[in-house]
């Protein structure tokens, strides 16, 4: 029987994939490859290059605990700094030889007799004992099927695939959507365009962006004195972690937190009509709370219009809204988010008995393993997302569990490990019970919920409870084949 080419195939080179690669190397596992469909590595921070792109969690916690960066120049790092950080990870941990850039993951089939995976890629098939999927939830741009869109004669693109060849100066621009990316790039492009029309479906809760520069003296202290660096990281982690009870245990208290968002709106927008249009009609936290200080002022500019009527039709050089208004457009920018159903379900992954991954549901054990899919692991899979703190903490927790599983397969010479169906079922049921009374289930429509209204995105608790749940690979909950 032919042995697989690799011990592990890691899918994706964002923070999740790079973290998995580092931990594999530190565990003495060097026979692995990282597949990346794009020509460069870096995940979200390589793909999203729109003006103003930045993180909304403090840089000190939006980074790996094993690779602290004392050189951040801002409290909330920009896209370019975050991309530089991923480059440093690849360089410092020797990940370059493991990267396969421009090689897309196209699916996988479990070979039951041999206990390994046949992986289909754009560069041909490869095989691996284990697969670690670190695709992330937000890598498939969602572009609405607007009536007449094929007739549009201007330039159109999604914010996550920003067209830097298009000069927006003096152009009439329409932005469809007002989510996390839109509120960052709209203040940047508003001063240079001739006219900007922002099509809003739902008003968002927005709070001030408390960003600041980190000066040379402060950076020097963080670089030279490790205890200060650790204290700063712990402070920022705690500052955000104390918000977890609002999301999970006491969602009604979010109504008090709404005062912050309303005060922010009223301070920056004086026009009564515009205020009403920008006031959300749902409880804060039900959708992602956005962080931005420059969005509201941009909407008050004389060359910017907020359109709350839905798009009825796109024409060659204009957009017609549901109220019959028609506005000329040269450039159309989609800020419409992503298809956030778990990414591995977007390709055909066939497990034991030909079962397809996430074909009927997104049930997953600890966001890391799925019954029927031996030796197939996910990094921050279903129900490991957050609304209040850094996903990097969750990534490290998930990767620790996954790498421990890979180590167990190696150390014991196992054919495969597969989470027991009843264990997964009980775990998913427990998570869903905990989610029932959370803010995400308070009535609004959001990317946290699937088409049936089930929340397969969020973790219902503190981040440290997820760290505890993934602290070790609980092989007793798995079907072990030797």
TrEMBL record:
Q: What is this protein called?
A: NAD(P)-binding protein
A Pfam family found in this protein is Pyr_redox_3
Q: Which organism is it from?
A: Massilia mucilaginosa
PANTHER family registered for this protein in UniProt? FAD_NAD(P)-BINDING DOMAIN-CONTAINING PROTEIN-RELATED (PTHR42877:SF4), L-ORNITHINE N(5)-MONOOXYGENASE-RELATED (PTHR42877)
- Highest taxon above the source species: Bacteria
């Amino acid at each position: 029987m032919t042995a697989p080419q690799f011990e592990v195939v890691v899918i994706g080179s964002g923070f999740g994939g790079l973290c998995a690669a580092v931990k594999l190397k530190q565990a003495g596992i060097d026979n692995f490859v990282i597949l990346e469909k794009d020509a460069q590595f870096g995940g979200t921070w390589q793909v999203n290059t729109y003006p103003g792109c930045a993180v909304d969690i403090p840089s000190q916690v939006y980074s790996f605990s094993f690779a602290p960066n004392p050189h951040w120049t801002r409290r909330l790092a920009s896209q370019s700094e975050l991309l530089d950080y991923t480059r440093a990870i690849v360089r410092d941990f020797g990940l370059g030889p493991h990267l396969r850039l421009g090689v897309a993951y196209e699916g996988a089939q479990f070979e039951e007799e041999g206990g390994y995976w046949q992986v289909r890629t754009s560069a041909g098939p490869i095989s691996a004992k284990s697969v670690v999927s670190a695709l992330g939830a937000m890598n498939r741009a969602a572009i609405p099927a607007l009536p007449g869109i094929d007739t549009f004669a201007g330039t159109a693109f999604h914010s996550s695939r920003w067209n830097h060849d298009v000069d927006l100066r003096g152009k009439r621009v329409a932005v469809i959507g007002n989510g996390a990316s839109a509120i960052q790039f709209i203040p940047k492009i508003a001063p240079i365009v001739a006219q900007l029309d922002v099509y809003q479906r739902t008003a968002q809760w927005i709070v001030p962006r408390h960003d600041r520069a980190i000066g040379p003296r402060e950076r020097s202290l963080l670089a030279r004195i490790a205890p200060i660096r650790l204290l700063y990281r712990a402070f920022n982690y705690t500052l955000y972690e104390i918000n977890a009870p609002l999301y999970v245990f006491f969602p009604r208290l979010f109504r008090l937190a709404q005062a912050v968002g309303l005060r922010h709106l009223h301070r920056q927008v004086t026009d009564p009509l515009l205020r009403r249009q920008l006031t959300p009609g749902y409880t804060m936290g039900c959708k992602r709370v956005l962080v931005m200080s420059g969005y509201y002022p941009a909407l008050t500019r004389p060359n910017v219009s907020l359109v709350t009527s839905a798009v009825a039709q796109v024409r060659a050089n204009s957009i017609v809204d549901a109220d019959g208004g028609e506005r000329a457009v040269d450039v159309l920018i989609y800020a419409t988010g992503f298809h956030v159903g778990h990414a591995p379900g977007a390709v055909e992954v066939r497990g034991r008995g030909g079962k397809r991954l996430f074909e009927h549901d997104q049930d997953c054990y600890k966001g890391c393993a799925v019954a029927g899919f031996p030796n197939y692991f996910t990094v921050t899979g279903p129900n490991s997302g957050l609304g209040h703190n850094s996903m990097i903490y969750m990534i490290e927790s998930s990767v620790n569990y996954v790498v421990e599983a890979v180590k167990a397969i190696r150390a014991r010479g196992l054919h495969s490990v597969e989470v027991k169906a009843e264990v997964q079922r009980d775990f998913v049921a427990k998570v869903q019970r905990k989610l029932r009374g959370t803010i995400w289930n308070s009535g609004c429509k959001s990317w946290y919920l699937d088409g049936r209204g089930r929340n397969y995105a969020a973790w219902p608790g503190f981040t440290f409870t997820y760290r505890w749940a993934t602290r070790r690979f609980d092989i007793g909950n798995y079907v072990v084949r030797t």
